[in-house]
Automatic annotation (TrEMBL):
Protein's name in the database: Methylenetetrahydrofolate reductase (NAD(P)H)
Annotated gene: MTHFR
Pathway: One-carbon metabolism; tetrahydrofolate interconversion
Domain of life according to the entry: Eukaryota
Gene3D superfamilies cross-referenced by the UniProt entry: 3.20.20.220
Keywords of the record: FAD, Flavoprotein, Oxidoreductase
Transmembrane domains' residue ranges: none
Chain ranges of the MTHFR SAM-binding regulatory domain: 84-384
Species assigned in the record: Nothobranchius pienaari
A biological process from GO: tetrahydrofolate interconversion
Cofactor dependence: FAD
Keyword Oxidoreductase appears in the UniProt entry: yes
Key word rRNA processing present: no
Length: 407
């Protein structure tokens, strides 16, 4: 509007050309007219610059007002209504990473963290992840976790995650509200979690009902994707890569849950092998898996005209052990530390950190309806059964493959 223009002129100490003043004085009380005139002037100026052949591009300072710059770009024919993702994850602009096209799925919601932890790599995976016997992820330290802290203030986080936690179920409610978008018991919307600093991805909405159900019962999900069998690469929700291709995904689910739940889960998983791969770890490094300990599993891939198959996302067992350190640390660094030392709220988060397990599940049979929800339904059914049913048949040392967590 007119007042904004006067303020900018005052701050910049620039004079407004007479021909512009003559036009805007009669319409100074009409903000929409002022904006439309400014858009017209900007479009004409941009056309002169672009037509000169000396200007390769344009940079706009929006001042957090996106309406006018967007309209300028539309009128110039430079606004892309449907920006296509080159890969399922946000591509880094760093020249060193220009060939990178494969990442572990674990950092899907923490891309800045992944870039930070791999910034010292000389080469980045291209074409395939390979056999990652020793990926050199940057060490986890307090500075690193502070550097990558949530964008929200402490006050906002307490409103979302609870000024006071009374029991473990209070944490379940936070996760559930994040999934559903419903207000929490204090009337606030949960817009983020320590592992997800943004609202839900569009493809996660495809799983919302199932995710709500399991989070209410203490399966605290931090990463998921639906199975996809040959959707067009232009699909608005799951599409990526150039047009004319087809994309595929294996169903994936990652969550924290109690040792009691894991005991039941391990028993249930026996009847889903080899269809389902699992990897289960705790903060101390207790490690249970039925996957090859060095072999990555491609969970997202695409087929495009004139190109080899692209596999941009993998579940890598070696990387998972690096990720688990970060995933567990976030309980303390971003959540527990919101509360006073020794407070009940802090002790609840610390208990979860110390006693829960981090689990990932992959359903390898992607053309069929995902069985991961049936796996969890079976787990809940077993938990609801008499105790002797759960105890029956549980044996083994729990170090690798199916077994019990009991010491």
């Amino acid at each position: 509007g007119y007042q904004s223009l006067r303020q900018l002129v005052k701050l910049s100490k620039l004079e407004v050309p007479e021909e512009i003043t003559r036009v805007i004085e009669p319409i100074k009380d009409n903000d929409a007219a002022i904006r439309n005139y400014g858009i017209h002037q900007a479009v004409e100026m941009c056309r002169v610059l672009l037509d000169s052949g000396k200007v390769p591009g344009l940079h706009f300072y929006t001042l957090n007002r996106e309406v006018a710059p967007t309209e300028v770009l539309r009128q110039l024919g430079l606004w892309i209504e449907d920006p296509r993702r080159p890969l399922p994850w946000a591509v880094s602009a760093h020249p060193k990473r220009r060939v990178e096209d494969v990442r572990p799925i674990f950092w899907a919601s923490r891309p800045k963290s992944y870039i930070y932890r791999t910034q010292d790599w000389d080469d980045f995976p291209n074409g395939r992840w390979g056999n990652s016997s020793s990926p050199a992820f940057g060490e986890l330290n307090d500075y690193y976790l502070f550097y990558l802290k949530s964008k929200s203030s402490k006050e906002a986080l307490l409103q979302m995650w609870g000024e006071e936690l009374k029991r473990e179920e209070s944490v379940f409610e936070v996760f559930t509200c994040y999934i559903t978008g419903q207000l929490n018991r204090n009337g606030h919307k949960v817009m983020c979690l320590p592992w997800n600093d943004e609202p839900l991805a569009p493809e996660t909405n495809l799983l919302k009902d199932e995710l709500e159900k399991v989070n209410r019962r203490g399966v605290l999900t931090i990463n998921s994707q639906p199975n996809i069998n040959g959707k067009p690469s232009t699909d608005a929700v799951v599409g990526w890569g150039p047009a004319g291709g087809y994309v595929f995904q294996k169903a994936y689910l990652e969550f924290f849950t109690s040792s009691e739940n894991v005991n039941a889960l391990l028993k249930v998983l026996k009847k889903y092998e080899p269809r389902v791969n699992y990897h289960i770890v705790n903060v101390h490094g207790r490690n249970l898996t039925n996957a090859h300990e060095m072999q990555p599993n491609a969970v997202t891939w695409g087929i495009f005209p004139g190109r080899e198959i692209v596999q941009p996302t993998v579940v890598d067992p070696v990387s998972f052990m690096y990720w688990k350190d970060e995933a567990f640390a976030l309980w303390i660094e971003q959540w527990a530390k919101l509360y006073e030392d020794e407070s009940p709220s802090r002790m609840i988060i610390k208990y979860i950190h110390d006693n829960y397990f981090l689990v990932n599940l992959v359903d390898n049979d992607f053309p069929l309806e995902s069985c991961l929800w049936r796996v969890l339904d079976d787990m809940f059914e077993l938990l609801d059964a008499p105790l002797e049913t759960l105890a029956d048949g549980m044996s083994g040392d729990g170090s690798h493959g199916n077994g019990t967590l009991a010491e």
